[in-house]
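Our collaborator T.R. sent over the components below with a one-line note: 'Predict the complex.' Nothing else. No constraints on interfaces, no templates requested, no preferences about which chain binds where. So this is a plain run: every listed entity goes in together, and whatever single assembly comes back becomes the starting point for the next discussion.
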Amino acid sequence: MTKSTNNGAKITASVYTSHVPAIGVAIDMNKKGEAYWQPLFQGYEYSQQWLKDNKPDVIFLVYNDHATAFSLDLIPTFAIGTAAEYKPADEGYGARPVPVVKGHPDLASHIAQSVIQDDFDLTIVNKMDVDHGLTVPLSLMCGQVEEWPCPVIPFAVNVVQYPVPSGNRCFMLGQAIRRAIESYDQPLKVQIWGTGGMSHQLQGPRAGLINREWDNQFLDRLIDDPKGLSQVPHIDYVREAGSEGIELVMWLIARGAMSDVNGGPKPHLAHRFYHVPASNTAVGHLILENK
Amino acid sequence: MALVKPYLDVPGTTIFDADQSRRGYHLNQFCMSLMKAENRTRFKADERAYLDEWAMTEDQKQAVLARDLNKCISLGGNIYFLAKIGATDGKSFQQMAGSMTGMTEEEYRDMMLKGGRSIEGNRYVGEKK
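Returned assembly:
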């Protein structure tokens, strides 16, 4: 558990996971037991128990919108949800049959105010639907539930139109988010989740690209050398992990919010999992606990 | 000044940058409209008439009618937007992605089950396979 020097909010852990839409379909259609999906869901059995044992008060969930809430009319690089609730979106197949996501407007507004004053220009969103980028990680970690275990603050990152924010910018933003959360005066346990990736390409003749070696090096470095990893340029993600693999920069936001980046102890690696394939994508998953 | 594009030598890959986004604005916004059930119904009832409501080029409309996703992408489409057409057709993301590779649905699915397309030979245009 987090040792606290004040009575305010604390980041207790970070969770990293891919958010492949087909995983949502497999859950919603009760296909989890099929041979194709079994190995994937086994990798999250530990995580579901872990989340029950380490229930946060709030989840700060970093994800990307896939042309759902944001069309080409408006493309915010970083957008924070400050609404009371968010409906699961109809992405073209009908909305997923999952609970409405309850927000935490007070903490979200506090974070927005703090992070903007810390020189990161966030877009504030008071109304949006949330797509598989946000709801699939919740389903993977919580299973099929009547309601999500706690309020969620959605934090959407543009990874659709190039250029997406750099790994370095994301890593620094994570640090600003930690400062914001830890200056909140309520004693909340907050988890920060980074989602998307791992290697995948959904378009063109190179679709189906998977780079197992690169993915596992990314996981190694995310755990042990996040600052060095944050210096990797966009082109390396595109070339090595596929055009959609660039979603992985979002993991650096969550990693930047961990205590060791601010001089604290190294986080405890509670769980690590990697699996190919889920549809077109390599699935990676980590749980890091702040000591 | 033109945009700097360090990604043009990545094979079989179109990066959705500002130039592509401008080229594909109406195409992508048409796709976006398919997130509403009533629009999906109207599109399916008369695709051509529905497309004619949008300020798309004739090439873009033909590419949509042919479900030629590579062509749609070359004309400014982005896969996350184009996926709404696939959703309207009841196609999975794997079927859509596979359709751009020249492989059959089965071949593509098998490739993914065997660990996906190898990075070896796929980093640079003109690289030896």
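Summary for T.R.: Chain A has one domain: 10-289.
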